[in-house]
Structure formats: structure tokens, C-alpha cells
Amino acid sequence: MTQYAGVDEMPESQRQKQKKQTRKHLITMAFNQLAKDGLINTRTADIAKAAGVSHGTVFAHFPTRDALLTEVINEFGARVTRRLHELAGGGSVHEILEAHLKGLAEFEPFYTRLVREGSLLPESARNTLIMIQSAVSFHLSQAAEREMAAGIIRRLPMHLLFNTWIGLVHYYLANGDLFSPGKPVLERYGKELLEHYLTLITE
Amino acid sequence: MTQYAGVDEMPESQRQKQKKQTRKHLITMAFNQLAKDGLINTRTADIAKAAGVSHGTVFAHFPTRDALLTEVINEFGARVTRRLHELAGGGSVHEILEAHLKGLAEFEPFYTRLVREGSLLPESARNTLIMIQSAVSFHLSQAAEREMAAGIIRRLPMHLLFNTWIGLVHYYLANGDLFSPGKPVLERYGKELLEHYLTLITE
Amino acid sequence: MTQYAGVDEMPESQRQKQKKQTRKHLITMAFNQLAKDGLINTRTADIAKAAGVSHGTVFAHFPTRDALLTEVINEFGARVTRRLHELAGGGSVHEILEAHLKGLAEFEPFYTRLVREGSLLPESARNTLIMIQSAVSFHLSQAAEREMAAGIIRRLPMHLLFNTWIGLVHYYLANGDLFSPGKPVLERYGKELLEHYLTLITE
Amino acid sequence: MTQYAGVDEMPESQRQKQKKQTRKHLITMAFNQLAKDGLINTRTADIAKAAGVSHGTVFAHFPTRDALLTEVINEFGARVTRRLHELAGGGSVHEILEAHLKGLAEFEPFYTRLVREGSLLPESARNTLIMIQSAVSFHLSQAAEREMAAGIIRRLPMHLLFNTWIGLVHYYLANGDLFSPGKPVLERYGKELLEHYLTLITE
DNA sequence: CATGAATGAGGCTTCATTCAT
DNA sequence: GATGAATGAAGCCTCATTCAT
User: Fold this and answer.
1) Run of H or E residues at C71
2) Nearest to B6 among D2, D25, D52 (CB)
3) Which domain of life is it from (chains A, B, C, D) (predicted)?
4) Going from the N-terminus, what domains does chain B have, and what CATH number goes with each?
5) Contact by Cβ (8 Å): C146, C84
6) Nucleotide with the nearest C1' to C12 CA
7) What pLDDT tens digit does each residue of chain B (203 aa) get?
8) How far apart are CA A38 and CA B1, in angstroms?
9) Is D22 near strand F, with its CB below 7 A from some atom of it?
10) Which of A77, A106, D13, D147 could form a disulfide with D152 if both were Cys (CB 3.0 to 4.6 A apart)?
11) Which residues of C in 50-79 have their CB below 7 Å from strand F's atoms?
12) Cβ distance D167 to D156 under 8 Å?
């Protein structure tokens, strides 16, 4: 049931706006639902219900389930990346990692799903994770370069430096239900992980 | 005892052996198939076909799909654990990590599936991963304790020491197709990871 | 209320009607099919085919096979009961039994299936039979009470009076194919049963 | 595992005897199992297990499941019939009905299964029930004839006289779980049914 | 465009029956 | 003859996707 009695009465631009809005809403609610029940176990019907639209509407906006997930994931990737850039602007390694954790913590449920289930999803999911990591990597590399030069942190190959950090964080996220049942892992262990990691890479 | 008493007396070497063999074969082929197509995306019919038996035979040996997967995973866990204990017998931290990589490398495809998909599977999958890690943790802790005492490696909380290593290894495994397409990651990056990690934890 | 609020407002006469119709059609055709092939031996696919819909459609309307059967049986129970009340309104014992036979005759095939297979079905089937019998019992008790008081029929415990009648009728229904092959038993033997039974209970 | 090391050592007659014995045993245990779990819901594997033989042995003795059931039912029919003849030898109507109840009570569980599920089974099941009833009918008819002539019981068409009785008894058997949960119905209600019925048919 | 009923391919599981030993 | 592992034809149910309204 639309807001208008006859479809043709709606001005074109209005209609398009409406459509874009529905699409956006769908992405938002899908995001929530996927974070809640997982990327694999959420059915298109669940998403439709969560968004308060008909099941068919999902396919009016996205040709396939995969396309919707890809969109949600991409959207998410863009937001996280933006946020990380915001937070991590040119500080020390310590500050950048802190910003990274803060940024992830804001999206922990969905990000965790991506870490856990990403490898079962369309390539876009993987690419998004790569993109997010690039954002961090970018800032971290610069800071690390500086601090290596300044003798603050050890000289280590950048990719290993970075992957050690990511590996550590992902490991805690993926096993959050074991490490910190019922409570965000990053909240509970973030500080500890950060300090530990800094210890490791500090001269 | 009547003639209808049941047939537990003599091992009935012929038939029972045959059945055990089929069961074993099924587990082996399931193992391969699961390693190849993933734990989520492998259907019971695929396993039957891979094993060269009828679909029904799968259920003559395992009551449900889950039971079969659990069996395969447990079997796998036991083998890996045993192997890790074999390899990691009381050496230095370096030797133990080397042994760990060697042990995992022998089972890389399946282990990778477990790391990637474990969180979507019956609890047994998680438990198996925990068990495997316990095996490594056990040896690593002892060696690390010694070497910390000897001033060879840094004093660090054991769980962080361990999880940093596991996180790093799992991260490379989970993304093996990106880091090392078409070739086992551990073969390509194992040495590098090991040396890097040792650098980090060395005084 | 947003535009995504759900659509309970207007009856959406078109679609909802259509769905209800399909559901009803499904129940009707299931009813026929079950009467024809029996409650045990009718598969969901048969019902779908009989209704001219896809197999999946059955489950779009009823969560399980059992739920569908239960629905059909309940619907049937309600109809028969209503009909029996209609027919049996406060007459003599003779009239009530006549009404009972007439009511059953209208639904003989399905009712016979229920009598034959009821004990193998979900509880709802039993309950429905009980409900139907309660309807008759209610009217019969009242009339019998009156006629016993008036010395028209013998003084007999009500439950035995009733169960004798039901037992007789069910026996003929359950063996209808022997007593009256290719033709409704009640049509052929109803009158005779009624007269016989009245003879028995008459002073 | 047979009692003999080599099959050919067994004398022909011995073997045949053995086979007949197994067959008999199978029928006996099938009888118990069918009485316990019902004719529809008992699987051939259950029967084999109950008999302590292999699943295949069932099919070595009976070509199909139906053939086995038929055999069991026929065997049962013969026994009940014989027993009924034994018990019901030429007494009064009262004595004959009493004998009938007594005879059925000895086999109540299986007989009840037959009454409940008979119409879903191969024709032989129906025929057996008919045969059993013929046995009773035979004695009852003679006695009833006498007592009608003697003015003890009413003059009623024999088939109605008989079917009223059978209908009543079957009704209580089929609904035994409702009328007398956890206890044989005939034990609890037999006497009452008998007296009630006699009242009905008595002048 | 939005709707949601209908679709149907495909997955898991059961069980009477077969057959090599 | 007895065995029991293996078979495979069904049966129930799920869910992404389509399409008439």
C-alpha cells in the first residue's frame, strides 16, 4: 500500500526519492538483522520483516540476496573506513590503534559477523574487509615509519607489523563469545590488547 | 543363551571389519570433501558420491549430517593433537612453534575450513579447535616459562603471548587464498611468521 | 506510524481474499484427497496436485503436514457438529438418531476415514471425533431422559445407551466396503440400524 | 552365526527343522512387537531386533513385510478362533458372550491393534477379523436361535444381533486408552458390557 | 513501485528390500 | 540358511526468487 492512491500522481522526482529512501531503509535494517543473526543464517524474508516491507520489495531493490548483502557490506565498509580516517588522523601508533579499536567497537556486532563468516560470502565481503584494513594500514604505516625512524618502535616489515595486530584483534572478535560472553570483547579486552601489542613492538 | 541371543561373541572379523572400513572410508572422504568445499556447503549427497556409496549408506553409519561432521572433526582433532604432541616434545619456544606450523601444514586445508567456518558449526567444532590449541598451549607455556626465566624471551602474560601467535597464524590461514593463491600459506609464509613472532617476543 | 509499519489497516480485499481462498481450496481438496486415499496414505504432494498448486504452496499455508491435517479435521469437525445440531434440534430419540445418520451420511467418506484411522493420527483427530459425538450425545441424552421418564424407552445407563449406538454405527462405517461395496453403507443400512437399535432400547 | 561350523554338515531334516523354528520364533516375536507398537508403526528392523535375528533373516523367511504381517495375523486368527471354539462350546448366549470376552481378553493388545489398524492393512487382516467373528457368530447364532425359540431373548435378525455386540466390544477396544487408560478395557468394562447387552436383547 | 502468494529446486532423513559373504 | 551392510526410492520441509495485481 503506497502513500498515494494512484501511482501516476506521484511526481517523478518524488517517486525516485521514495525509492531511494526505501532502499536505504532496507540496507539499514538488513544491516541490523545480519548483525543479529549472522550473514549466513539471515533469510531474505527476515530482512523484509525487519524492514517492515514485503518480501518481494527486497527483490525490487536488489536482484539477488547476494547483491543485497554486497550492498550492505559495502555501505558498511565505507562507513567504517570513513570513521576510521576521521578518528585516526595522523597521530602516534598508539593513537591510531586506539582509534582503530574505537572505530571497530562502534560496529562490533556486524564487523564480527564479517570476520567470522566473510569467507563464506561473495568476494565483495572479502574486499570490504581488505578496504577497511587498508584504511588502518595507511595510517599505521605512516606513524610506524615515523616511530621506527625515531627509534620508538622496532624496525619490522610493515605487513607483519600490521597483520600481527589485525590477527590479534580478529582472533578476539571471532571468539568473543568465549572470551567475553554477553559483552563486547573490545570493551573488555581492547585496552589490554593494545598495551600488549605496543609492548611487543616497542624497542 | 539361546540361538537368538545376539552376535557379540566372536569379532566376526569379516563383516565387522568391512563395516568399520566403510565407516572409516566415509570419514576419510568426508574429510576430503569438507576440506575442498567447506563444512557448510558440502551436502550429504556429495559425501556419499565422493565415497562411492549410496546416499542412504551415509545414514546407515551416522544418524545425522551433524553427527558425521562431528565425527570427522573429532577424528581430525585427535589426529592433529596427537601429531602436535609428537612434534612438539619439550624443545625451545622456537622448536615448538616450528612444530606447530609443521603439524598444521600437514592438515592445512581442513584446518583452514575449521578456522573459517567453525563459528557456524555444532559446538564440537569449536571444542576441537580449543583442544588443538590446548595442545600447543601446553608445550608453549612450559617452554616460554623456561625461556622467560632464562631471560631469553620477554615476560609477557601467557595468554597474550599465545593468542598473538594463534591470531597471527589463523589470520594467514583464513586469508590464505589472498596471501598465497593456489599454494599453502604456511608453506609460503610459515618461516616468515615464525621469525617475525620470535623477534617480537625476544628480549 | 511510518510507512513501514505493517499492513493491517485495510482488509486489502484483493490479496487477502485470494490467499484465504487458496487456503480454503487447499483444505477442500485435501479433504477430498484424504477421504479418497486415507489420512495416512495421502502425501503432501498428492494434496498439492489435487489442489492444482505447487508442493511448496502447501507449506506456505500450513507449517507442517500435521498442521494441515489438523486443520482439515477441525474444520470438518466444526461443520459436522454444526450440522448435527441443526438437524437434531430437540426431537424424539428416533428423530435425533435419524438426524445423526443423515448428518453423517452427508460426510460419510471422510468420517469413515476418521473412524478407521483416527487412532493413528495427531490428537486433534481423536478430539474431533469426541466433539462430534458430544454433539449427538447432548441431544440424545436429553431426549432419552424424557422418553425414559415417559416409559417409552428402557431405563439404561446413558453412556451404555450411547456407546451401543455409536459402536453399531462405527462398525458399519468401518466395514462399509464389506457390507455395502461401492455404495454408502449408511444409505443402505442406516434405516435398518436405526430401527434395530430402537427396538433394542424400547420397552 | 549358526550352531554349525559348516552349513553342509547339517542333516537336511535338521536344517529344515531349524528353519521352521526360526520362522515360528519370528512370528511369535513379531506378534509381540506388533501388539506393542502397532501394525503400522512397527518396522521390519524392529521385528528382527525383537526376534534376535538379523534384519535380512526376516526376508529370508517372508518375501515382504506384508507377507510377514499376513502370516502373523493369520496365525493369530487361527489361535483366537480355536480358543474361542474351545471356550464357547454350546452354552447359553450369556456363556458364549462371556467366553468371547474371555477369549479376546487373552489377546487384547494384538486384537485391539487389529481392530484399530486393520483397515490400513492387506486384505488378509480384514479376512482374519471376519474369521474370528465367524467363530463367535457360529456359536452365538445357535444359542440365540434356541433362546429366541424358548422366548428368553427377543426375536431379532441374527446379523443385527451379532453386529450390535461386536460393534460395542470393538468400540470399547478401539478407545481403550480413553475408557481405561493403562489397563485392559475388557477387564474393566467387559462385565458391564455383557450385562448391558443381555439386558438389551432380553425380552 | 510495492506487494506477497506461489513456485520448485534441492536438502535431509527413513526404511523395505537386496545380495555378497 | 543366516547375515547385515548397502541400496535408493520416496517423503517432508526450506527458501531464494518470480510475477500478476
Assistant:
1) helix C65-87
2) D52
3) Bacteria
4) 10-62 (1.10.10.60), 65-201 (1.10.357.10)
5) no
6) E3
7) 344 444 444 445 666 778 889 999 999 999 999 999 999 999 999 999 999 999 999 999 999 999 999 999 999 999 999 999 999 877 899 999 999 999 999 999 999 999 999 889 888 888 999 999 999 999 999 999 999 999 999 999 999 999 999 999 999 999 999 999 999 999 999 999 999 999 999 97
8) 57
9) yes
10) D147
11) 55-56, 59-60, 63-66
12) no
Cell of C154: 428402557
Q: Which residues of chain C have a CB within 8 Å of the CB of A3?
A: 3
Distance CA A34, CA A43 (A): 9
Please provide the size of chain A in residues: 203
User: Residue A2, CA: closest nucleotide via C1'?
Assistant: E2
List chain A residues with CB under 8 Å of C19.
none
Reading phi first (left if > 0) and then psi (alpha if -120 to 50, else beta), residue B113 is in alpha
Which residues in 39-68 of chain B line strand F, with CB less than 7 A from it?
A: 53-57, 59-61
- Kindly report the CA angle at C27 between C23 and C31, in degrees rounded to 5? 170
Q: How far apart are CA C111 and CA C120, in angstroms?
A: 15
Instruction: Mark yes or no for CB contact B7/D25 under 8 Å.
Output: no
Report the alpha-carbon distance of residue B172 to residue B179 in Å, rounded.
7
CA distance C139 to A14: 66
Show the cell assigned to A38: 549472522
Nucleic strand E near CB of residue A54 (< 7 Å) = yes
